[in-house]
Amino acid sequence: MRFADKIALVTGASRGIGRAVAEHFAGEGATVVVNYRRNRDAARETVESIARAGGEAVALQADLASGEAIVAMFAEIRKRYGALDVLVANAAATAFRPLLESKDYNVERTYAITVTGFFRCVQEAAPLMEGRSGSIVAVSGLDSYRYLAGHGALGSAKAALEALVRYFAVELAPKGVRVNGVNPGFIDTDSARMYAAYGGRSWEERVAHEWLPQVPAGRIGTAAEVAELIAFLCSPQAGYIYGQTIVVDGGHSLL
Predict the structure, then answer these.
(1) Residue 116 pLDDT
(2) What is the pTM of this model?
(3) Can you give the pLDDT at residue 201?
(4) Phi/psi at 31 (nearest 5 deg)?
(5) Beta-carbon count within 10 A of 131 CB
(6) Residue 42 to residues 1, 35, 45, 251: CA-CA distances in angstroms?
(7) Is residue 148 a contact partner of residue 98, using CB atoms and an 8 Å limit?
(8) Stretch 49-63: mean pLDDT, rounded?
(9) Coil, helix or strand at residue 171
(10) Exposed (0-12), middle (13-18) or buried (19+): which is 128, by Cβ within 10 Å?
(11) Which of 48, 78, 99, 186 is a Cys-bridge partner for 152, taking CB atoms 3.0 to 4.6 Å apart?
(12) Could you give the CA distance from residue 214 to residue 75 in angstroms, rounded to a whole number?
């Protein structure tokens, strides 16, 4: 119960890695704020799953492309709890298109959520974490350092996200707040399954013929494995880790 009496906010927590992270933190004693953009039913399912397991959670809607929505979400967190111990920035959105076919609004929204949204969330979270040994973790992706078809906007935004992790780590260290990142490889999530269909291939075809040959571990990772790493980075055991983006990809980046 490393996070007993702690307050954790997980953005994009209604499904995939975000849901796994929310459930993991709740399982270790944290009260979890489940942020979602529009899928209220999925967010409610996450909260109910946590409650069935004996944990505590609340769902808060906020579109992280909106600065006003972010401010309102953190105002509600301050009102309810008065503080924050963990921020996991997992929310992302994009349109899978070649760069030359991407529309302005596709690129603007991708950056608004992934980069500007993270920027604003950290600015709002930091004052709530002072004096509490707070921890912030940003979720990046393998498209930040290697080519994935249709990922130009998101990959470049994730690369910027990792740069912000390093800068925020230095600037927030004197305030007792640690900032790190995780960079998952091929993970079995709804988003990954949606992307697998890009180019007209099925999930099974994409995994068997394209992804698994690139992974020394010989399997696709799970959201729970990413959640374990994020929890470690937010724990006292990781107290000397600052500004690092840790790769969790079964060895994919080694090939």
Answers:
(1) 98
(2) 0.97
(3) 83
(4) -85, 125
(5) 10
(6) 26, 11, 5, 32
(7) no
(8) 98
(9) helix
(10) buried
(11) 99
(12) 44
